[in-house]
Amino acid sequence: MDSTSTQIERARGLLRSNDGQGSASPWAALAAALLVATAGVLMAGMVVLGPGVVFADVPPVGSVAAN
How many folded domains does the chain comprise? Predict the structure, then answer.
């Protein structure tokens, strides 16, 4: 088994940045932000509409609704 200092150095090496070597595309950040925004809108819709919400039937255009 490796010593503790060797394990720490190995972990530090894994945490260092790649300095541009195969780094992620800037479009990946935009796509991730789009995904998060979409999920937020969908979750907000579920909170607003929620289960059990029923929309009343709309009478046809031109008909007189009974009061």
Answer: 1
Domain that holds residue 29: 25-50
Residue 34 has pLDDT above 90, yes or no: yes
Report the 3 state secondary structure along 5-54: HHHHHHHHHHHCCCCCCCCCCHHHHHHHHHHHHHHHHHHHHHHHHCCCCC
pTM confidence score: 0.40
Residues 6+ apart with CB under 8 A from 18: none
Q: Could you tell me the two tokens for 64?
A: 């007189």
